[in-house]
Every structure is written in C-alpha cells, then in structure tokens.
C-alpha cells in the first residue's frame, strides 16, 4: 500500500454540557483527525484528543508532532500492520498520541483493503467471543440528586456501568455521592474516578465508603508515580483500584500488577500509540488477571469511539466497561455517529470494512480550529497511471 496523501484537521468541538473533572472543566473538545489516502483513492481515518493532564499534549503540540510525521509519510509503503510502528518510530521518537492518530488511519486502510472490519483484522481468524460492549456512563455534575435521576433514567434503558467523577468538590460530598450512587445502583459496575486529585486522607475516606457500599473500583486516586500509596490503599480497604494516568507504557502495567497497586487498568489509544498497542496492552492485563476498562479522552468523536470499540471486540473481555465519549459532544463530525443501544455498542454496528466511519467534510470545516490550520501533504513523486 502506497501512502499518497495525509490530511490533518485540528478541531474544537462544543460539548453538549460542561464536564466537571478534577483539575479542569471541559466545554469544548480539542481533537486532531487524520485522513490518509492510498494509491487507490481509499481513505482511512484516525483521531487523537488533546490531553494536557494525561499525556501532556495540547492541541498545538499534538498537531506539531503529527505534522512532523505526516509530512514524511507520503510516498512510503505499508504492506502489513507490522510495518506501521517501525515506520512511525523511524520518523519520531515517543509521542504516542500523534502516532495513535496516524496508526489508526493506516489500520483503517489495511482493514478496508482486506475487506473486513478492523476488529476482525486486529483479532485474526477467530471470531470475537462477545457481541456487545457494555458502555460506561459518566456522572460528573457533582449534583447528587441530578446524578441519581440521570442514572435511573439510563438504567431503565439498559445501562449497567457507571463512573462517578470525584476530587473536584469536597471530600464529604464525594463520600456521600459514592455511597448513595453505589447503593442505588447495586449489582451494576459502579466506579469512582479521581483523576489523580486525592490526598491520602480523602482517598481513604472515599475508598472506605465505596468498599462499604458496593463500589466496584476506584480509579487513579493519586498522582502518577505513587505506586506504593496505591498498594497501601488497596491493602487497607480491599477495594479494587484502576490505574489510568499511571499507565503510559506496557511496562507500567506489569509494575502496578507486581506491586498490587492496581487490579485493573484504563487503556486509551492516545496513551499507548494506536489500535495494535492498545490490543497488546489489554492482552497483557488479561494475562495477569487484571480487568480492563477501555476509554476515549473526554471528548473525542466517533472516529476514536469506533477505533476503541474495534479494540474492545478484538479483546473480547472488557469487564470494567467502555467509556465512549462522543456522546458528550453537542454534535459529532460523522453523519451517522456511533451511538449506544441498550447501554452498549453491538458488533453489528461495526460490520463494515475498516473503521466503518468517516467524518463529513462540512463538519471538518465547521469545527476547524481558529488558531491551527488544516494541513495536507502529498507524495512528491506520485506513480504514473
């Protein structure tokens, strides 16, 4: 496969409502889309969201890294999935978010050329053992009664996985929210996510309340690097912990498992570098008895949502749910976004060859960043036809 053209689209997409997390309140999603066209005119798509507090990437830094890669890809050939990582690593060290954006687009192209859905291309010959991925709904307003009403309404529609955002308000409020929501949703997978924001005392109070109320796990209570504190919190409370920001490389999974600091991991394309590395990370977790949560950055579009869902079907075991964040956008870039049905994404929604989704040109123009230009790079020596 010859890479003929790469297009980059830095976007700023409004959220349907503010998302309040520890450290930031989001009213717009800042994300980068890449379209890669091959010599036959097919185009594959990838995406990476800016995540200053998770990957260290702003939209500007992400776009700059992606431009460095994209400017050197036209004219290069990719014959198999095994060629992608060495090609990108040859051009640029590290920078997993920019590489995830381009790797996903190339994997979309390869799966299209093979005539099969990306999850089948990732998994190989054996069919996925699951036909639905349970979606995880975020409760992030901080208003307990509103969150309970929201969860009750969605639960009636089939939702069974929940994430309570903690760390942005008082510890007393978070303890009450965790206890009340976990009790109200007994039998479901209910988690709390602190995004690194808790003190030792706050984490202990929330974890104890969660353990007593049926909380399934607490995600990333402490700053990255506090593995010993994570292990001690688990020892004191017995509550399962999920590592998110702490997992930036495959080696981090093994370190947390060996220290009993995490019983599961939240895995994202932007942290690991693309669809194949995400599958590898998930397989490593499962091999060590750790549970997996798959997540998109809040918020990314259907392009990232579909890519992550394909990884979920390739893995086949996502016990801690799938956080699909395009639901929080005021409008998606795809004409027919990937949407939940009965609280899940179903395999038949991803039956088309490749990724199965592409953005609308009009939406790429509508949500184009006002400060970062779209870029286009072509093969300087295109083959004669």
The quaternary state of the protein chains shown equals single chain
Task: Give the N-to-C terminal Cα separation.
Answer: 15 Å
CATH homologous superfamily descriptor of the largest domain: Enolase-like C-terminal domain
Instruction: Bin the strand percentage.
Output: 15-25%
Uncertain segments are none
Element-level helix/strand string: EEEHHHHEEHEHEHEHEHEHHEHEEHE
Shape descriptor reads: globular
**Main sheet overview:** 8 strands, parallel
- Count of all domains: 2
Mean of residue pLDDT values: 97
Helix count from the secondary structure assignment: 13
Order of strands across the biggest sheet? 5-6-7-8-9-10-11-12
Q: Using the coordinates above, name the CATH class of the largest domain.
A: Alpha Beta
In the CATH hierarchy, what is the architecture of the largest domain at level 2?
Alpha-Beta Barrel
Helix content: 25-40%
CATH topology of the largest domain: TIM Barrel
Rg on CA atoms, Å: 20 Å
Instruction: Give the tally of β-strands.
Output: 14
Summarize the structure.
The protein has 385 residues and is α/β, with parallel strands linked by helices. 37% of the residues lie in helices and 21% in strands. The chain folds into two domains: 3-116 and 358-378, 2-Layer Sandwich (Enolase-like, domain 1), CATH 3.30.390; 122-350, Alpha-Beta Barrel (TIM Barrel).
Structure write-up:
The chain is an alpha/beta fold. It folds into 2 domains: 3-116 and 358-378, Enolase-like, domain 1 (2-Layer Sandwich), CATH 3.30.390.10; 122-350, TIM Barrel. The chain is built from 13 helices and 14 strands. The strands form 3 sheets. It has an 8-stranded parallel β-sheet. The longest helix is centred in the first third of the chain and has 19 residues, at 96-114. The radius of gyration is 20 Å and the shape is globular.
């Amino acid at each position: 496969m010859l890479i003929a053209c790469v297009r980059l689209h830095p976007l700023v997409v409004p959220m349907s409502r503010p998302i309040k997390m520890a450290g930031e309140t989001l009213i717009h999603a800042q994300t980068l889309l890449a379209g890669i066209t091959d010599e036959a005119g097919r185009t594959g798509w990838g995406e990476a969201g800016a995540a200053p507090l998770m990957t260290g990437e702003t939209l500007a830094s992400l776009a700059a890294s992606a431009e460095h890669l994209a400017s050197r890809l036209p004219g290069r050939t990719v014959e198999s999935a095994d060629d992608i990582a060495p090609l990108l690593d040859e051009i640029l060290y590290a920078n997993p978010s920019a590489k995830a954006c381009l790797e996903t687009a190339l994997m979309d192209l390869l799966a299209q050329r093979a005539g099969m859905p990306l999850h089948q291309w990732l998994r190989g010959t054996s069919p996925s053992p699951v036909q639905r991925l349970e979606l995880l709904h975020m409760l992030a307003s901080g208003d307990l009664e509103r969150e309970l009403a929201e969860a009750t309404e969605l639960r009636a529609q089939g939702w069974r996985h929940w994430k309570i955002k903690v760390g942005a308000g008082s510890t007393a409020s978070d303890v009450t929210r965790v206890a009340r929501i976990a009790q109200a949703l007994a039998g479901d997978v209910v988690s709390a996510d602190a995004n690194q924001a808790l003190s030792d005392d706050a984490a202990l109070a929330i974890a104890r309340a969660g353990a007593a109320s049926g909380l399934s796990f607490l995600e990333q209570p402490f700053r990255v690097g506090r593995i010993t504190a994570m292990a001690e919190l688990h020892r004191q409370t017995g509550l399962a912990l999920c590592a998110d920001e702490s997992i930036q490389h495959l080696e981090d999974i093994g370190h947390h498992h060996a220290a009993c600091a995490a019983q599961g991991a939240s895995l994202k394309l932007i942290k690991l570098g693309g669809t194949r590395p995400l599958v590898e990370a998930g397989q490593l977790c499962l091999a060590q008895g750790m549970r997996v949560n798959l997540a998109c950055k809040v918020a990314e579009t259907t392009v990232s949502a579909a890519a992550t869902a394909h990884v979920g079907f390739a893995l086949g075991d996502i016990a801690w749910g799938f956080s699909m964040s395009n639901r929080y956008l005021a409008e998606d870039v795809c004409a027919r976004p990937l949407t939940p049905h009965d609280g899940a994404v179903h395999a038949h929604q991803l039956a088309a060859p490749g990724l199965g989704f592409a953005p609308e040109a009009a939406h790429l123009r509508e949500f184009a960043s006002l400060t970062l230009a779209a870029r286009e790079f072509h093969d300087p020596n295109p083959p004669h036809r």
